[in-house]
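Encode chain A's predicted structure.
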Amino acid sequence: MIIEKLALHTVNADSLMPFYAEVLGLPVISSEQGRFTVQAGWSELTFFELEQPPNEKQYYHFAFTIPENKLAEAKRWIEELVPIGTEAGQDISFSESWDSHSVYFEDPAGNILELIARHTMNNATDDPFDSKQHILCISEIGVPTCKVPSAVDQLAELGLMTYKTRNESFNPVGDDNGLMMVVETGRRWHFTDKTAECFPVRVTVQGVGELYLSENEHGLMIQNII
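Encoded structure for chain A:
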């Protein structure tokens, strides 16, 4: 699953843009008051303000893929810029089933970001780590919902299938290139003290189109905007 575009809400886009442009070093594609877009490898990341700000602070979890042999260098780079998340005294997450290593951190708006090196992918490089070159794509977006199985079924109807194993509380959908992390509302996000909450998101998937994901009392609502 190729995530071509990801658009997320934020309270103050103008104050958030320097973090992505200057701290992370991602090229700015476009910017205007209340909205900006940066390039993250083959993906575009947009933050925009709503005309009517929500009553609660919104935050998302998403991940950037980096070359599979660059986690150590990427960790040294990012921890000089921002605090990184820890879990049980560890600051690197290893998934045996996914064969991946990750580090987690937050942006100034409270979004949970992840740098993930997937050792199943043939993208190693001998070049020193450079965020402009080696943030390869957006490869994960968290999709919290009160009804995980129903959400997974809806995504399957669009041709987006379960990754690895199906689970009623944590069910990734997609493949190594890109995943929607369908998780039960209230589940704690890994390496943070934040829980998964439902906030609207727009994601454009290659071959599927633009999807608007939101939640109501019946669970996940998916609009395919083609």
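The mean pLDDT is 95.
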